[in-house]
Structures are given as structure tokens and as C-alpha cells.
Design goal:
Length: 309
């Protein structure tokens, strides 16, 4: 029996175009940059967004508060009204090929709260953004439950600004082992090139959560694994494009609170460097390890100055 995918007219057209060397209208020509630039902003996310020009960002990653009362920054009287501000700014700064991935959960409890479902409804009904995928991040460990099925996943919604959104499947394929390759090559319906490249990771990603001893841990209670972020960046952006990654917190006005947040940020940076130094390969050039140690010392000295101010 033929694979149902073989009757998908859109997929058949894409395969034909690929076989004949015809580029899709969403294709983007790019070159691998010799250098990459990284910038860290300690500010309210909306303030940063408002300073960014229109149509300039390829990918936005947002891990907002889930509105589940984990802390003061995770409680909202009207979640959607708060979110509309940064959703509209995000839409404005995205390029026509741009994508936005929003982490969240489905914990809706009342009309004055809200969750990821409210954001999806708003984007689909009140903006021209396109819902491309609803991704399930599945993990095996988590809290137990007695009054409902224990939760073992979180959601990531992928919206695109236009139908010409960028997506690079080949960069995120999961390789087949040799035994599987041999078996699949016997099936003449399958494309040999696709077998070599690996399988589509689908929209269900089994990636373990970070345990308390993970070297990636930097102290944030809802930190996401680097592999989840890596897959989004590789698939939804291209070399040389601009990626904006921020966690949204409620605007903080008091200087004393801002100072505490600032100090926590630097503590996280120092811990991250310590973890890198601890896990870095012994084969790594000595000059790189030395520079990392010097950077850690400089950050520690900088933190001491800020605390004393």
C-alpha cells in the first residue's frame, strides 16, 4: 500500500521542484559568516523590542511566564492584555521570512488569567500571523499527580509572519543508524537522499529535562535544554540572520529591585562560565581555557563593584 504522503499534492510538487533544481519561493541565499556577534541586554523586553527596526529579525524565541504563580513575576490579572504588547511588537520586527516560537503551557483556570491557548487564539483571529506547527516537547521525568494525568510535556507554538517563512528541515534531521538505512534502502518508494540525511524529527520532540546536576543549569527555575533551543534556531533561521531570544518578565520600576535582578544575571553568567570550564575538553587549546578563566575573574570583580554601589 502506498504511503499517504505520496498523495499530498503540495509534497509532490516540492519533491518535483527539488528533483529539478527549482528553488521554492521561500528559499534564501546566504553565505556562512566568518564571525558572529552576540549582544546581551538587561532591560524590559518590550523596551528592547521598541528600539528594533521593522522587518529586521529572522527568528524570535520567547519563553514567557506561564502564569502559574511560580513567583511574583509569574502571576497576571489579564495574561492576554499583557501579552498583546510584545506579540504586536514581535510581529512588527519580524522579516517576511521570519518566525516566532513561543514556549508555554495549558493551565487556564479562569477568565481573568489565561495561558498559551489565549495567545494562539489571539494570533490566529486578530493578526495575519500563520500557525505553522504546534510542537510537543516530551520528557520522561516530572512531578507526580493524583487528580489528573501527570504532565510530561510542554508546548511550543511556531508562528510565521507570512507564507514565505524560512524553514531548513535538513539542518535538524535525526540520522538513521546503519541497520535502519539498510532496511529502508530496500523500499524503492523511499528517496535514497532522504535516507542518508535522516528523518524528520516531527512535531513531538523527546528531549530530557535538565536535572539539578546538569552542567547546563544556571539557576533559573524553568530553564530549557540547549538542544530544544538549538533545534529551533537551526530550523527556523539561517546563517547570518538575526535571532532574538528573550524571557519576558513584568516591568520592574523600583531601582532596588532592578539592582537585584541585575546582580542575579551576573551570578548566572559566572556560574555558566564555571560549568563550561568544568566540562570543557582537556584537548581544548590552553589559550581558550585561560581566556575563559580570566573572563570569569573579571565578571566576579565586576559583581563585587555592583554589590558595593
Amino acid at each position: 500500500m502506498a504511503n499517504k504522503s505520496h498523495f499530498n499534492s503540495g509534497l509532490k510538487m516540492l519533491n518535483m521542484m527539488k528533483a529539478n533544481g527549482i528553488l521554492h519561493s521561500s528559499s534564501i541565499k546566504f553565505s556562512i559568516p566568518k564571525k558572529t556577534r552576540h549582544a546581551l541586554f538587561i532591560s524590559d523586553a518590550v523596551d528592547v523590542l521598541k528600539k528594533i527596526p521593522d522587518n529586521s529579525i529572522q527568528l524570535i524565541l520567547i519563553d514567557p511566564p506561564y502564569n502559574i504563580d511560580m513567583a511574583s513575576w509569574d502571576s497576571f490579572h489579564d495574561y492576554l492584555e499583557w501579552a498583546k504588547i510584545w506579540l504586536e511588537e514581535s510581529r512588527r520586527v519580524l522579516k517576511d521570512s521570519g518566525n516566532i516560537a513561543i514556549f508555554g503551557g495549558l493551565q487556564y483556570q479562569g477568565i481573568k488569567t489565561g495561558d498559551l491557548m489565549e495567545l494562539i487564539f489571539y494570533l490566529r483571529n486578530y493578526t495575519d500571523m500563520r500557525l505553522v506547527n504546534f510542537i510537543i516537547w516530551y520528557y520522561k521525568n516530572g512531578m507526580s499527580a493524583h487528580r489528573f494525568f501527570a504532565n510530561r510535556h510542554e508546548e511550543i507554538v511556531w508562528f510565521a509572519k507570512t507564507k514565505k517563512y524560512y524553514f531548513d528541515l535538513d539542518s535538524v534531521r535525526i540520522p538513521f543508524d546503519e541497520k535502519t538505512k539498510i532496511a529502508y534502502r530496500r523500499d524503492k518508494r523511499l528517496n535514497p537522499d532522504s535516507i542518508e540525511k535522516g528523518k524528520n524529527p516531527t512535531n513531538v520532540w523527546e528531549i530530557g529535562r535538565l536535572n539539578s546536576n546538569s552542567w547546563e543549569r544556571v539557576g533559573h527555575p524553568t530553564q530549557k535544554p540547549a538542544e530544544v533551543v538549538r533545534r529551533l534556531v537551526r530550523g527556523l533561521s539561517y546563517p547570518g540572520s538575526i535571532v532574538l531570544d528573550f524571557s519576558l518578565v513584568r516591568a520592574l520600576q523600583e531601582k532596588s529591585v532592578l539592582k537585584k535582578i541585575d546582580i542575579v544575571f551576573w551570578l548566572i553568567m559566572i556560574r555558566c562560565l564555571k560549568n563550561i570550564l568544568k566540562n570543557i575538553s582537556k584537548n581544548c587549546p590552553i589559550n581558550i581555557r585561560t581566556n575563559l578563566r580570566l573572563l570569569k575573574i573579571q565578571l566576579q570583580n565586576f559583581l563585587i563593584i555592583k554589590i558595593n554601589k
